[in-house]
Amino acid sequence: GQSYEIRMLDNRKIGELPELNGKLVKSIFRVVFHDRRLQYTEHQQLEGWRWNRPGDRILDIDIPMSVGIIDPRANPTQLNTVEFLWDPSKRTSVFIQVHCISTEFTMRKHGGEKGVPFRVQIDTFKENENGEYTEHLHSASCQIKVFKPKGADRKQKTDREKMEKRTPHEKEKYQPSYETTILTEVG
Fold it and tell me: Which of 24, 38, 65, 183 would disulfide-bridge 85, Cβ 3.0–4.6 Å?
């Protein structure tokens, strides 16, 4: 339920795709499973979630906080997907909210579970000659884990404690933490 900002940036090189100048593009955001084994059963997992949480969505756009998004839509049958249009030449920030937690998809449920990692994936499309946004431009994603506030605080504390016990050589294997995450381009 917490709102997180994702800044949409035009990452074209100078002179690349001039046909996009002055045009809108469509981005589709999805929350999907990061683990391969859960990707195979994603449909059943999401159906189970829908059954247990009637009327709830997995992903929403916090419209009042967002800037520069046009025609935001959430398809009632795709609980993990939202989409909107935006102008790459203007400042655009979308604030998303994820309404399910990582432990809702773990097998054992007696507290202290690891929680499954999710991935936020963003696919961006331009218009074809019929005015439909079907021509793929770019895809990017990053891994996320979603916890309730107390659980998130506890996880950060135990992660910090674990890191403090490691040797400097062992610490080198881990990424440092950052204020912002640059999403990784998906091929």
Answer: 24
